[in-house]
Design brief:
209 residues, alpha+beta, five-stranded mixed sheet, three-stranded antiparallel sheet, 11 strands, 39% strand, globular, EC 3.6.-.-, NUDIX hydrolase, hydrolase, NUDIX_hydrolase_dom
Length: 209
């Protein structure tokens, strides 16, 4: 029986360049040797990685925010998320920071919901999506937001409503879609307490506890 599990593999690269370097990401061009010996050129975005948080309150509502996303020219409903700003940063610490900064919320119970590559055909971004429960208002001043985040709207929406809207094609953000459907699947399966611990290894973005 075929084992269905992603596995590491690296085809030989005979040349590489970085034609563009941005503030947080860059574009790399690799000449990659194919199995038949031919060499093809592959362009892709190099990304530091991200974390996202599906924060679930005691009334079975998910903390969501609405934000303008210029590349797709839409305001999207999303879950709190952000970049791994420092190489090797503990993703749990980054997720806790994002939940505080974007929603002014803290959580007592953290689990790993899913690990995904957002666009593996053209970008090496890896995202760890956490489930956060036992929510409370964060202490202290609210984080001062800027740029697109200054126009952000916050809401708490019942999980069942988000599932319906995802399947109806009304919600499109990758992390929200994966997070909401993963949570629904976990509940229908072995339950939320069977999810991986928050400090579970993440080979795509190794970190120190």
């Amino acid at each position: 029986m075929q084992q269905v599990q992603d596995t590491p593999e690296e085809w030989r690269v005979v040349a590489t360049t970085t034609p563009f370097t941005g503030n947080k990401t860059s574009v790399r061009t690799d000449d990659v040797v194919m199995p038949d010996g031919s060499v093809v050129r592959r362009d892709y975005q190099v990304h530091p990685g991200s974390v996202a948080v599906l924060a679930l309150d005691g009334q079975d509502r998910v903390v969501v925010l609405r934000q303008y996303r210029h590349p797709v020219r839409q305001k999207l409903w999303e879950i709190p998320a952000g970049l791994l700003d420092v190489p090797g940063e503990n993703p749990l610490h980054a997720a806790q920071r994002e939940l505080y900064e974007e929603a002014h919320v803290k959580a007592e119970d953290w689990r790993v919901l899913a690990d995904v590559y957002t666009t593996p055909g053209g970008c090496d971004e890896a995202v760890r999506i956490f489930l956060a429960r036992d929510l409370a208002e964060a202490e202290g001043e609210r984080f001062e937001v800027a740029e697109e985040e200054a126009d952000m709207e916050l809401a708490r929406v019942p999980l069942a409503e988000l599932v319906r809207k995802v399947l109806a094609g009304e919600l499109h953000n990758n992390c929200l879609v994966v997070g909401v459907l993963s949570l629904a699947a976990a509940r229908a399966g072995e339950g939320l307490d069977a999810l991986r611990p928050a400090e579970a290894p993440w080979p795509a973005r190794p970190f120190e506890s």
